[in-house]
Amino acid sequence: MKAVVSRSPNKKVLTVHNSFDYLARDMGWQVVGSIQSRTGLEPSPKDMARLIRMIKKEGVAAIITEPQYSDKTARTLARETGTAILLLESVATGPPAADTYERAMKTNLEAMKKIFR
Prior knowledge:
This protein is α/β, with parallel strands linked by helices.
């Protein structure tokens, strides 16, 4: 994963909330902000306008979302800014199979390859 991300000149990301801060640190991403100031708290129209301005100003490469949360706000931001959405599995939910983590990380890697080129 780190090798894939390191090839990209743009490592700026916006997250749904701060759950991926540890991964961002390890991947060398620069988190410029979060959609939700608290988990489950959607941004106001004023906050949306601020996020759109920030995404455009910072040249964000991807908006990181998770499958267990609604992506409605992220899709709106992506549509308004032309920014890609990166759906990453945090392995916070799902069946506790022995290979769940490995399969999730392989899926995440393939998603990263589409964005960070």
